[in-house]
Amino acid sequence: MQRSVSHATFVIERAYKQAPAKVFAAFASALAKSQWFGNAEELARTGEQSNFKSDFRVGGKESISATFHNSGVTHSYDATYWDIVENERIVIGYQMHLDARRISVSVGATEIKPDGAGSKLIYTEQGAFLDGYDDAGSRERGTQGLFDQLERHLARGGE
Amino acid sequence: MTNTNHGTFFIERRYDADPQRVFAAWSDTDSKRAWHVEGKGWEIRSYELDFREGGRETGSFHFLDGVKVFGEETTFSNEGVYEEIIPNERIIFTYSMSRNGKRFSVSLATVEFKADGGGTRLMFTEHAAFFEGADGLQMREQGWQELLGKLDAFLAKGA
């Protein structure tokens, strides 16, 4: 196999109406995070169960996997928490697999800052895409989608 | 208040040893210790390497001139996790660095080994998130330049 690594960085900025403590809680609570990160909206539609697990502490693991109906491919996410500063910063390292194939390893840093009565969220992902896997911006689009779901989750009261 | 900065650097270096030998200098605990850990100016308080996917590498170094250079007794510690290991081809790891127990960076490092004549072209890429009190991109790159130079000297000894 011809090995190759393609490096990519992207930054996403979002403004939320909720204060930093509320936004941080949506990451810190496994139940809350499962509501927006765990694909709960889609699962509610199809009636499936999520296998999302989160152990929110430095050194703790987080994972979720799902098999897409149209392709039959299982997408797996496996993360480790590297840094947590309450209400301010969360840094993870994570891998993505398509079935058994590892397609990327990344560091993702979420910064939460007060912005008026609300918050500004800045997410920076620096990643290595592996062996010719062509992301073509889908990671960034997917992450944008997650932060849309976070916004709807917070608008519902964030519980 | 937290402060987070992101950066990426890339170092390429050629070694006169073949990929098997260069890779072995990363995978074998005694070899890795010889070029990566030992040195003048610090006392090694601990060093452990568990070189397998998911395995950890930890080290703790007390700087002899800490009071003079940093104004206080100073111990640096590193903690890493091996994300991917492909023998003789690629190593991907995440790691954090701390000074006196305060974490100041989280990084993703990719090391690629390519056969080049009778030698090896090594490509090192680091994506880093630097926190309050961090060394920053320039010093980090300089540190790795020195380490990869020590690797050259280690290999030249024929070990």
Radius of gyration of chain B: 16 Å
Provide the β-strand percentage band of chain A.
Answer: 35-45%
* Main structural class of chain A: alpha+beta
Contiguous low-pLDDT stretches of chain A (5 residues minimum) are: none
Q: Helical residue percent of chain B?
A: 25-40%
Summarize the helix and strand pattern of chain B as letters: EHHEEHEEEEH
Amino-to-carboxy terminus distance of chain A: 47 Å
Oligomeric status of the shown chains?
heterodimer
For the largest beta sheet of chain B, what order do the strands appear in spatially? 1-7-6-5-4-3-2
- The share of residues in extended strands of chain B comes to over 45%
The biggest sheet of chain B amounts to: 7 strands, antiparallel
Q: How many β-strands of chain B, per DSSP?
A: 7
Model regions low in confidence, pLDDT < 50 over at least 5 residues of chain B: none
Mind explaining what this structure looks like?
The complex is a heterodimer of chains A (159) and B (159). By secondary structure, chain A is of the alpha+beta class. Helices cover 26% and strands 45% of the residues of chain A. The mean pLDDT of chain A is 93. The longest helix of chain B is centred in the C-terminal third of the chain and has 20 residues. Helix content of chain B is 27%, strand content 48%. Chain B is of the alpha+beta class and 159 residues long.
What key attributes describe this structure?
heterodimer; A: 159 residues; alpha+beta; seven-stranded antiparallel β-sheet; 4 helices; 7 strands; 26% helix; globular; B: 159 residues; 48% strand
Question: Could you give a quick summary of the protein structure above?
Answer:
The complex is a heterodimer of chains A (159) and B (159). Chain A has 159 residues and is α+β, with helices and mostly antiparallel strands. Chain A has helices spanning 20-28, 30-36, 40-46, 138-155; strands at residues 5-16, 53-54, 61-67, 74-85, 89-98, 101-115, 118-130.
